[in-house]
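Justification of computing resources. Each target in the renewal requires a structure prediction run like the one illustrated here; the chain below, 422 residues long, is used simply to show the kind of job we budget for.
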Amino acid sequence: MSDSTRIVIVGAGHAGGTVAALLRQYGHAGTVTLIGAEPVAPYQRPPLSKAWLKGEADGDSLRLKAPEWYADNGVDLRLSQTVAAIDRAARTVRLSDGETLSYDKAILATGARARLLAIEGADLDGVVALRTAADAEVLKTALAPERHRVKRLAVIGGGYVGLEAAASARALGAEVVIVERESRILARVACPILSRFFQAYHRERGVHFILDATVQRLIGEGGQVKAVHLGDGSVLDCDAVLVGVGAVPNDELARAAGLDCEDGVLVDLSGRTSDPAIFAIGDVTRRPMPLYDTVMRLESVPNALEQARQAAAAITGRAAPEPETPWFWSDQYDLKLQIAGVPIGCDDLVVRGAPDAPGFALFHMAGDLIQAVEAVNAPGEFMVGRQLIGRRTPVSRALLADRATPMKAVALCPIPSSLEAS
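Resulting C-alpha coordinates:
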Protein backbone atom coordinates (compact mmCIF):
# COMPACT_ATOMS: atom_id res chain seq x y z
CA MET A 1 0.00 0.00 0.00
CA SER A 2 1.03 3.58 -0.51
CA ASP A 3 1.78 5.88 2.42
CA SER A 4 -1.48 7.69 1.68
CA THR A 5 -3.74 4.66 2.26
CA ARG A 6 -6.48 5.66 4.71
CA ILE A 7 -7.81 3.12 7.20
CA VAL A 8 -10.90 3.65 9.34
CA ILE A 9 -11.58 1.23 12.20
CA VAL A 10 -15.15 1.19 13.47
CA GLY A 11 -15.17 -0.04 17.07
CA ALA A 12 -12.50 0.52 19.74
CA GLY A 13 -12.81 -2.66 21.76
CA HIS A 14 -10.17 -5.37 22.10
CA ALA A 15 -10.30 -6.23 18.39
CA GLY A 16 -10.30 -2.65 17.14
CA GLY A 17 -7.59 -1.47 19.50
CA THR A 18 -5.38 -4.45 18.65
CA VAL A 19 -5.68 -4.11 14.88
CA ALA A 20 -4.78 -0.40 15.12
CA ALA A 21 -1.58 -1.30 16.98
CA LEU A 22 -0.76 -4.15 14.59
CA LEU A 23 -1.15 -1.94 11.53
CA ARG A 24 1.55 0.33 12.87
CA GLN A 25 3.67 -2.63 13.98
CA TYR A 26 3.41 -4.14 10.50
CA GLY A 27 4.58 -0.92 8.89
CA HIS A 28 1.43 0.80 7.69
CA ALA A 29 2.35 4.46 7.21
CA GLY A 30 -0.99 5.88 6.09
CA THR A 31 -3.67 7.34 8.32
CA VAL A 32 -5.44 5.23 10.94
CA THR A 33 -8.66 6.47 12.53
CA LEU A 34 -10.09 4.48 15.44
CA ILE A 35 -13.71 5.23 16.35
CA GLY A 36 -15.14 4.06 19.69
CA ALA A 37 -18.57 4.48 21.23
CA GLU A 38 -17.27 4.46 24.81
CA PRO A 39 -15.59 7.51 26.39
CA VAL A 40 -12.43 5.52 27.19
CA ALA A 41 -9.61 4.11 25.09
CA PRO A 42 -9.50 0.36 24.27
CA TYR A 43 -9.26 -1.87 27.34
CA GLN A 44 -9.42 -5.50 28.40
CA ARG A 45 -12.93 -6.75 29.13
CA PRO A 46 -12.46 -10.20 30.76
CA PRO A 47 -11.36 -8.67 34.12
CA LEU A 48 -14.66 -6.76 34.39
CA SER A 49 -16.41 -9.75 35.99
CA LYS A 50 -13.42 -10.61 38.14
CA ALA A 51 -10.63 -8.23 39.20
CA TRP A 52 -12.58 -5.04 38.46
CA LEU A 53 -15.68 -6.18 40.31
CA LYS A 54 -13.58 -7.10 43.37
CA GLY A 55 -11.75 -3.76 43.29
CA GLU A 56 -8.43 -5.35 42.32
CA ALA A 57 -8.12 -3.52 38.98
CA ASP A 58 -8.82 -0.05 37.60
CA GLY A 59 -8.96 1.63 34.22
CA ASP A 60 -5.20 2.16 34.09
CA SER A 61 -4.37 -1.51 34.57
CA LEU A 62 -6.88 -2.62 31.94
CA ARG A 63 -5.75 -0.32 29.11
CA LEU A 64 -4.43 -1.99 25.96
CA LYS A 65 -2.11 0.97 25.37
CA ALA A 66 -1.04 4.01 27.37
CA PRO A 67 -3.14 7.11 26.59
CA GLU A 68 -0.26 8.84 24.81
CA TRP A 69 0.42 5.86 22.53
CA TYR A 70 -2.31 6.81 20.05
CA ALA A 71 -1.06 10.33 19.35
CA ASP A 72 2.57 9.21 19.44
CA ASN A 73 1.83 6.59 16.78
CA GLY A 74 -0.42 8.66 14.58
CA VAL A 75 -3.67 6.91 15.47
CA ASP A 76 -6.58 9.35 15.43
CA LEU A 77 -8.67 8.07 18.36
CA ARG A 78 -12.28 9.30 18.25
CA LEU A 79 -14.08 8.44 21.50
CA SER A 80 -17.80 8.75 22.34
CA GLN A 81 -18.50 8.46 18.62
CA THR A 82 -20.34 5.96 16.48
CA VAL A 83 -20.65 5.45 12.73
CA ALA A 84 -24.16 6.12 11.47
CA ALA A 85 -23.69 4.86 7.92
CA ILE A 86 -21.20 3.51 5.39
CA ASP A 87 -21.26 4.64 1.77
CA ARG A 88 -19.44 1.85 -0.01
CA ALA A 89 -19.53 3.51 -3.42
CA ALA A 90 -17.94 6.70 -2.11
CA ARG A 91 -15.84 4.82 0.48
CA THR A 92 -16.89 7.09 3.30
CA VAL A 93 -18.31 6.66 6.79
CA ARG A 94 -20.66 9.18 8.37
CA LEU A 95 -20.14 9.72 12.10
CA SER A 96 -22.87 10.30 14.65
CA ASP A 97 -21.93 13.99 14.81
CA GLY A 98 -22.40 14.36 11.05
CA GLU A 99 -18.73 14.37 10.05
CA THR A 100 -17.76 12.27 7.02
CA LEU A 101 -14.47 10.39 6.80
CA SER A 102 -13.02 8.82 3.67
CA TYR A 103 -11.33 5.43 3.69
CA ASP A 104 -9.40 3.13 1.38
CA LYS A 105 -9.86 0.23 3.78
CA ALA A 106 -12.40 0.00 6.59
CA ILE A 107 -12.39 -2.48 9.46
CA LEU A 108 -15.60 -3.24 11.34
CA ALA A 109 -14.93 -4.23 14.97
CA THR A 110 -18.33 -3.37 16.38
CA GLY A 111 -18.52 -6.38 18.69
CA ALA A 112 -21.70 -7.73 20.24
CA ARG A 113 -24.23 -6.47 22.74
CA ALA A 114 -26.03 -8.25 25.52
CA ARG A 115 -29.30 -9.91 24.68
CA LEU A 116 -31.98 -7.97 26.54
CA LEU A 117 -34.87 -9.27 28.61
CA ALA A 118 -38.21 -8.36 27.09
CA ILE A 119 -39.90 -8.02 30.47
CA GLU A 120 -41.24 -5.28 32.69
CA GLY A 121 -38.51 -3.60 34.73
CA ALA A 122 -35.62 -4.52 32.45
CA ASP A 123 -34.70 -0.82 32.20
CA LEU A 124 -34.49 -0.19 35.96
CA ASP A 125 -31.31 1.17 37.49
CA GLY A 126 -29.15 -1.61 38.89
CA VAL A 127 -29.95 -3.99 36.03
CA VAL A 128 -26.70 -4.55 34.11
CA ALA A 129 -25.32 -6.86 31.46
CA LEU A 130 -21.58 -6.47 32.24
CA ARG A 131 -20.37 -5.67 28.73
CA THR A 132 -18.55 -2.42 29.50
CA ALA A 133 -16.48 -0.78 32.22
CA ALA A 134 -19.49 1.41 33.01
CA ASP A 135 -21.61 -1.71 33.58
CA ALA A 136 -18.95 -3.15 35.87
CA GLU A 137 -18.74 0.06 37.86
CA VAL A 138 -22.53 0.09 38.40
CA LEU A 139 -22.40 -3.49 39.65
CA LYS A 140 -19.35 -2.89 41.86
CA THR A 141 -21.02 0.12 43.47
CA ALA A 142 -24.25 -1.79 44.06
CA LEU A 143 -22.38 -4.67 45.73
CA ALA A 144 -19.96 -2.59 47.78
CA PRO A 145 -19.95 -4.04 51.32
CA GLU A 146 -21.81 -2.16 54.04
CA ARG A 147 -21.24 -2.67 57.76
CA HIS A 148 -24.80 -3.52 58.78
CA ARG A 149 -26.28 -5.00 55.60
CA VAL A 150 -25.47 -7.92 53.30
CA LYS A 151 -25.85 -7.05 49.63
CA ARG A 152 -27.78 -9.38 47.32
CA LEU A 153 -27.10 -10.12 43.66
CA ALA A 154 -29.54 -11.90 41.36
CA VAL A 155 -27.97 -13.38 38.23
CA ILE A 156 -30.30 -14.21 35.36
CA GLY A 157 -28.61 -16.83 33.23
CA GLY A 158 -26.14 -19.50 34.28
CA GLY A 159 -23.38 -18.83 31.75
CA TYR A 160 -19.70 -18.12 32.28
CA VAL A 161 -20.00 -14.37 32.87
CA GLY A 162 -22.74 -14.92 35.43
CA LEU A 163 -20.69 -17.54 37.26
CA GLU A 164 -17.58 -15.35 37.26
CA ALA A 165 -19.55 -12.43 38.64
CA ALA A 166 -21.13 -14.71 41.24
CA ALA A 167 -17.68 -15.78 42.44
CA SER A 168 -16.56 -12.16 42.65
CA ALA A 169 -19.72 -11.12 44.48
CA ARG A 170 -19.21 -13.88 47.05
CA ALA A 171 -15.64 -12.63 47.56
CA LEU A 172 -17.20 -9.25 48.42
CA GLY A 173 -19.51 -10.94 50.93
CA ALA A 174 -22.69 -10.57 48.89
CA GLU A 175 -25.46 -13.14 48.72
CA VAL A 176 -25.93 -14.56 45.22
CA VAL A 177 -28.74 -16.44 43.53
CA ILE A 178 -28.52 -17.66 39.94
CA VAL A 179 -31.75 -18.10 37.99
CA GLU A 180 -31.49 -20.38 34.95
CA ARG A 181 -34.30 -21.40 32.62
CA GLU A 182 -32.60 -24.70 31.68
CA SER A 183 -32.31 -27.74 33.92
CA ARG A 184 -28.57 -27.12 34.40
CA ILE A 185 -26.15 -24.22 34.27
CA LEU A 186 -23.84 -23.84 31.24
CA ALA A 187 -26.38 -25.88 29.29
CA ARG A 188 -25.56 -24.20 25.97
CA VAL A 189 -21.78 -24.08 26.31
CA ALA A 190 -20.55 -27.07 28.34
CA CYS A 191 -21.18 -30.77 28.86
CA PRO A 192 -23.23 -32.04 31.83
CA ILE A 193 -20.15 -33.19 33.77
CA LEU A 194 -18.71 -29.67 33.72
CA SER A 195 -22.08 -28.19 34.64
CA ARG A 196 -22.41 -30.45 37.67
CA PHE A 197 -18.87 -29.68 38.84
CA PHE A 198 -19.24 -25.89 38.66
CA GLN A 199 -22.69 -25.91 40.22
CA ALA A 200 -21.45 -27.99 43.15
CA TYR A 201 -18.36 -25.80 43.56
CA HIS A 202 -20.45 -22.63 43.68
CA ARG A 203 -23.00 -24.17 46.04
CA GLU A 204 -20.24 -25.12 48.46
CA ARG A 205 -19.31 -21.42 48.52
CA GLY A 206 -22.80 -20.18 49.22
CA VAL A 207 -24.29 -19.50 45.79
CA HIS A 208 -27.94 -20.48 45.42
CA PHE A 209 -29.42 -21.86 42.19
CA ILE A 210 -32.96 -21.83 40.87
CA LEU A 211 -33.17 -24.00 37.75
CA ASP A 212 -35.99 -24.59 35.26
CA ALA A 213 -37.14 -21.08 36.14
CA THR A 214 -38.48 -18.12 34.22
CA VAL A 215 -38.37 -14.45 35.14
CA GLN A 216 -41.76 -12.74 34.95
CA ARG A 217 -40.71 -9.16 35.73
CA LEU A 218 -38.27 -7.03 37.69
CA ILE A 219 -39.65 -4.94 40.53
CA GLY A 220 -38.31 -1.49 41.28
CA GLU A 221 -38.61 1.23 43.87
CA GLY A 222 -37.84 4.81 42.93
CA GLY A 223 -36.41 3.61 39.62
CA GLN A 224 -33.99 1.17 41.31
CA VAL A 225 -34.35 -2.59 40.96
CA LYS A 226 -35.34 -4.24 44.24
CA ALA A 227 -36.63 -7.71 43.39
CA VAL A 228 -37.02 -10.43 40.76
CA HIS A 229 -40.50 -11.89 40.27
CA LEU A 230 -40.29 -15.47 38.97
CA GLY A 231 -42.80 -17.37 36.89
CA ASP A 232 -43.84 -19.55 39.82
CA GLY A 233 -44.85 -16.48 41.79
CA SER A 234 -41.85 -16.35 44.12
CA VAL A 235 -40.00 -13.08 44.65
CA LEU A 236 -36.24 -12.64 45.17
CA ASP A 237 -35.10 -9.47 46.91
CA CYS A 238 -31.93 -7.97 45.46
CA ASP A 239 -29.70 -4.91 45.25
CA ALA A 240 -28.64 -5.56 41.67
CA VAL A 241 -29.49 -7.83 38.76
CA LEU A 242 -26.93 -9.17 36.31
CA VAL A 243 -28.43 -10.31 33.01
CA GLY A 244 -26.35 -12.92 31.19
CA VAL A 245 -28.56 -14.57 28.58
CA GLY A 246 -26.32 -14.35 25.54
CA ALA A 247 -25.16 -11.74 23.07
CA VAL A 248 -26.25 -10.36 19.70
CA PRO A 249 -23.72 -9.26 17.05
CA ASN A 250 -23.72 -5.55 16.25
CA ASP A 251 -24.03 -6.17 12.51
CA GLU A 252 -26.72 -3.57 11.76
CA LEU A 253 -24.22 -1.14 10.23
CA ALA A 254 -22.87 -3.85 7.94
CA ARG A 255 -26.37 -4.98 6.96
CA ALA A 256 -27.42 -1.43 6.13
CA ALA A 257 -24.34 -1.14 3.92
CA GLY A 258 -25.35 -4.28 2.03
CA LEU A 259 -22.60 -6.57 3.31
CA ASP A 260 -23.32 -10.30 3.53
CA CYS A 261 -24.44 -11.16 7.07
CA GLU A 262 -25.81 -14.21 8.85
CA ASP A 263 -25.96 -13.78 12.62
CA GLY A 264 -22.84 -11.68 12.18
CA VAL A 265 -20.79 -10.29 9.32
CA LEU A 266 -19.55 -13.06 7.02
CA VAL A 267 -15.78 -12.93 6.48
CA ASP A 268 -13.01 -15.07 5.01
CA LEU A 269 -9.80 -16.22 6.69
CA SER A 270 -8.30 -12.77 6.20
CA GLY A 271 -11.28 -11.01 7.75
CA ARG A 272 -12.51 -9.72 4.37
CA THR A 273 -16.23 -9.14 3.99
CA SER A 274 -18.18 -9.39 0.74
CA ASP A 275 -16.72 -5.95 -0.08
CA PRO A 276 -12.93 -6.29 -0.64
CA ALA A 277 -12.39 -2.80 0.81
CA ILE A 278 -14.06 -3.68 4.11
CA PHE A 279 -12.80 -6.10 6.75
CA ALA A 280 -14.56 -7.26 9.94
CA ILE A 281 -13.03 -8.80 13.06
CA GLY A 282 -14.02 -9.94 16.54
CA ASP A 283 -17.38 -10.80 18.08
CA VAL A 284 -19.36 -9.30 15.19
CA THR A 285 -18.09 -11.82 12.63
CA ARG A 286 -19.13 -15.23 11.43
CA ARG A 287 -15.89 -16.77 10.23
CA PRO A 288 -14.59 -19.96 8.58
CA MET A 289 -13.40 -22.73 10.89
CA PRO A 290 -11.26 -24.98 8.65
CA LEU A 291 -10.61 -27.46 11.47
CA TYR A 292 -14.30 -28.30 11.55
CA ASP A 293 -15.25 -27.51 7.94
CA THR A 294 -17.87 -24.98 9.05
CA VAL A 295 -18.42 -21.29 9.78
CA MET A 296 -19.32 -19.94 13.19
CA ARG A 297 -19.30 -16.86 15.39
CA LEU A 298 -16.84 -16.92 18.28
CA GLU A 299 -17.01 -14.55 21.25
CA SER A 300 -13.56 -14.53 22.80
CA VAL A 301 -10.45 -12.41 23.19
CA PRO A 302 -8.22 -15.01 21.44
CA ASN A 303 -10.52 -14.93 18.43
CA ALA A 304 -10.46 -11.12 18.36
CA LEU A 305 -6.66 -11.14 18.48
CA GLU A 306 -6.36 -13.80 15.78
CA GLN A 307 -8.67 -11.95 13.41
CA ALA A 308 -6.87 -8.65 14.12
CA ARG A 309 -3.63 -10.33 13.01
CA GLN A 310 -5.31 -11.76 9.92
CA ALA A 311 -6.76 -8.43 8.82
CA ALA A 312 -3.62 -6.41 9.58
CA ALA A 313 -1.50 -8.89 7.64
CA ALA A 314 -3.82 -8.84 4.63
CA ILE A 315 -4.00 -5.04 4.56
CA THR A 316 -0.22 -4.56 4.85
CA GLY A 317 0.69 -7.37 2.46
CA ARG A 318 2.30 -9.65 5.01
CA ALA A 319 2.05 -13.42 4.87
CA ALA A 320 -1.15 -14.74 6.43
CA PRO A 321 -0.65 -15.98 10.01
CA GLU A 322 -1.06 -19.67 10.73
CA PRO A 323 -4.66 -20.60 11.67
CA GLU A 324 -5.15 -21.13 15.39
CA THR A 325 -7.17 -23.63 17.37
CA PRO A 326 -9.91 -21.58 19.07
CA TRP A 327 -9.60 -21.34 22.83
CA PHE A 328 -11.38 -19.75 25.76
CA TRP A 329 -10.98 -19.42 29.51
CA SER A 330 -12.92 -18.60 32.67
CA ASP A 331 -11.62 -17.80 36.16
CA GLN A 332 -13.88 -18.55 39.14
CA TYR A 333 -12.60 -18.61 42.75
CA ASP A 334 -9.35 -20.60 42.58
CA LEU A 335 -10.44 -22.40 39.42
CA LYS A 336 -9.12 -21.80 35.92
CA LEU A 337 -11.21 -23.38 33.21
CA GLN A 338 -9.43 -23.56 29.85
CA ILE A 339 -11.19 -24.76 26.72
CA ALA A 340 -9.65 -25.51 23.33
CA GLY A 341 -11.52 -26.45 20.21
CA VAL A 342 -15.24 -26.85 19.61
CA PRO A 343 -17.18 -30.09 20.34
CA ILE A 344 -18.58 -30.55 16.84
CA GLY A 345 -19.37 -34.01 15.44
CA CYS A 346 -18.30 -35.85 18.60
CA ASP A 347 -19.14 -39.46 19.38
CA ASP A 348 -17.55 -39.92 22.81
CA LEU A 349 -16.23 -38.13 25.87
CA VAL A 350 -12.95 -39.19 27.52
CA VAL A 351 -12.58 -38.17 31.16
CA ARG A 352 -9.05 -37.72 32.47
CA GLY A 353 -8.90 -37.43 36.26
CA ALA A 354 -11.72 -37.32 38.79
CA PRO A 355 -14.36 -34.75 37.75
CA ASP A 356 -15.43 -34.08 41.35
CA ALA A 357 -12.34 -32.01 42.24
CA PRO A 358 -10.10 -29.52 40.41
CA GLY A 359 -7.43 -31.04 38.21
CA PHE A 360 -9.38 -32.93 35.54
CA ALA A 361 -9.94 -32.65 31.80
CA LEU A 362 -12.71 -33.68 29.45
CA PHE A 363 -11.82 -34.64 25.89
CA HIS A 364 -14.55 -34.54 23.25
CA MET A 365 -13.71 -37.15 20.61
CA ALA A 366 -14.64 -37.83 17.00
CA GLY A 367 -13.20 -41.26 16.36
CA ASP A 368 -9.58 -41.03 17.46
CA LEU A 369 -9.35 -37.27 16.99
CA ILE A 370 -9.80 -34.75 19.78
CA GLN A 371 -12.34 -32.09 18.79
CA ALA A 372 -12.28 -30.12 22.05
CA VAL A 373 -10.87 -30.22 25.57
CA GLU A 374 -12.28 -28.67 28.75
CA ALA A 375 -9.62 -28.51 31.47
CA VAL A 376 -10.15 -27.42 35.07
CA ASN A 377 -6.87 -26.54 36.81
CA ALA A 378 -5.18 -28.83 34.31
CA PRO A 379 -2.95 -26.59 32.15
CA GLY A 380 -0.91 -29.47 30.74
CA GLU A 381 -4.00 -31.23 29.42
CA PHE A 382 -5.20 -27.96 27.91
CA MET A 383 -1.92 -27.06 26.24
CA VAL A 384 -1.17 -30.48 24.77
CA GLY A 385 -4.81 -31.05 23.91
CA ARG A 386 -4.89 -27.79 21.98
CA GLN A 387 -1.82 -28.86 20.00
CA LEU A 388 -3.31 -32.26 19.20
CA ILE A 389 -6.54 -30.63 18.03
CA GLY A 390 -4.70 -28.24 15.74
CA ARG A 391 -2.47 -30.91 14.26
CA ARG A 392 -5.37 -33.38 13.84
CA THR A 393 -3.25 -36.03 15.58
CA PRO A 394 -4.95 -39.40 16.22
CA VAL A 395 -4.62 -40.56 19.82
CA SER A 396 -5.35 -43.59 21.93
CA ARG A 397 -8.42 -43.03 24.09
CA ALA A 398 -7.06 -45.47 26.67
CA LEU A 399 -3.82 -43.48 27.08
CA LEU A 400 -5.74 -40.23 27.12
CA ALA A 401 -7.93 -41.47 29.98
CA ASP A 402 -4.98 -42.77 31.98
CA ARG A 403 -3.89 -39.99 34.33
CA ALA A 404 -0.65 -41.91 35.01
CA THR A 405 0.36 -41.43 31.38
CA PRO A 406 1.88 -37.95 30.90
CA MET A 407 0.16 -35.83 28.28
CA LYS A 408 3.50 -35.46 26.51
CA ALA A 409 3.59 -39.22 26.10
CA VAL A 410 0.08 -39.15 24.65
CA ALA A 411 1.20 -36.47 22.22
CA LEU A 412 4.44 -38.19 21.27
CA CYS A 413 2.89 -41.61 20.82
CA PRO A 414 -0.24 -41.14 18.71
CA ILE A 415 -1.94 -44.34 17.62
CA PRO A 416 -2.96 -44.48 13.93
CA SER A 417 -6.61 -45.29 13.33
CA SER A 418 -5.74 -48.64 11.76
CA LEU A 419 -3.98 -49.79 14.94
CA GLU A 420 -6.38 -48.23 17.44
CA ALA A 421 -9.11 -50.72 16.56
CA SER A 422 -6.80 -53.64 17.17
